[in-house]
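Why should sequence recovery work at all? Because a backbone constrains its sequence more than one might expect. Tight turns favour small or flexible residues, buried strands favour hydrophobic ones, and helices have their own preferences. The token representation captures these environments compactly. In the example below, the structure is given first.
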């Protein structure tokens, strides 16, 4: 599946689904009407689009998550590093940290993360 970056409106909708799923689609329509001021047709159009993109599925009127918010964020981050920094995590970190200082607590936390992900 090719990763699809969500637009602002799609992301607001996706956040509702991630928060509420699994949810009956009629209930989702009511929430979107209340929170986004959407009509029923708009909710179903955006839902169908994001189901086609592989983020959610709507089976027997129950909307379920296929890709969690965390999985989506990780995929977007990976694409960004790949596209903008030639897939070099050190180059990304160097650019991100340019001119910044870490607190001891932040540095310790990052070291723990690196240790947990490092190949053994």
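From this structural description, the recovered sequence reads:
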């Amino acid at each position: 599946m090719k990763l699809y970056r969500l637009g602002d409106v799609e992301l607001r909708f996706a956040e509702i689904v991630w928060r509420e799923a699994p949810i009956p689609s009629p209930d989702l329509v009511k929430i979107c009407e209340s929170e986004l001021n959407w009509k029923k047709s708009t909710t179903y159009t955006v839902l169908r689009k994001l189901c086609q993109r592989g983020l959610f599925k709507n089976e027997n009127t129950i909307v379920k998550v296929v890709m969690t918010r965390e999985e989506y964020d990780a995929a977007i981050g990976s694409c960004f590093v790949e596209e903008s920094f030639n897939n070099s995590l050190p180059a990304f970190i160097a650019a991100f940290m340019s001119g910044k200082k870490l607190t001891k607590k932040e540095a310790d936390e990052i070291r723990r993360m690196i240790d947990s992900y490092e190949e053994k």
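A few observations help interpret the result. The chain is about 65% helix and 10% strand.
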